């Protein structure tokens, strides 16, 4: 799934850092939730063609905050893949998270 995705959304948690590095390296447009979603436009847009730093640096939310454009869900293209952590998943695929609500499933534009 990741290989075919052109637009990826990932959470800013440390376990997803490899996805945040690999996405731009492979030319994927990446959206990362602003930590704690404290902004009016709660996502960083990391366009690999416009990154002023390496993908490794851009993967760090505090560094992305220095240069990334912030966007709201209505400014995003259709998301091909959402990458987020989970506490558990049942057999039907229902996930149990930490309760912060950060993954932003409405951003998938179903």
Automatic annotation (TrEMBL):
Q: Which InterPro entries match?
A: FTHF_cligase (IPR002698), FTHF_cligase-like_sf (IPR024185), NagB/RpiA_transferase-like (IPR037171)
**Which Pfam families did the record assign?**
5-FTHF_cyc-lig
Record's Gene Ontology CC terms?
cytoplasm
Q: Which Gene3D superfamilies match?
A: NagB/RpiA/CoA transferase-like
Can you say what this protein is called?
A: Uncharacterized protein
């Amino acid at each position: 799934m990741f290989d075919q995705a052109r637009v990826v959304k990932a959470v800013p948690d440390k376990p997803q850092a490899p996805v945040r590095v690999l996405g731009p390296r492979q030319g994927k447009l990446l959206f990362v939730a602003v930590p704690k979603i404290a902004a009016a436009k709660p996502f960083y847009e990391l366009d690999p063609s416009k990154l002023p730093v390496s993908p490794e640096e851009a993967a760090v939310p505090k560094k992305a905050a220095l240069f990334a454009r912030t966007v709201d869900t209505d400014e995003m293209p259709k998301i091909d893949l959402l990458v987020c952590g989970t506490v558990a998943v049942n057999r039907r695929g229902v996930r149990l998270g930490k309760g912060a609500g950060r993954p932003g499933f409405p951003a998938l534009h179903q």
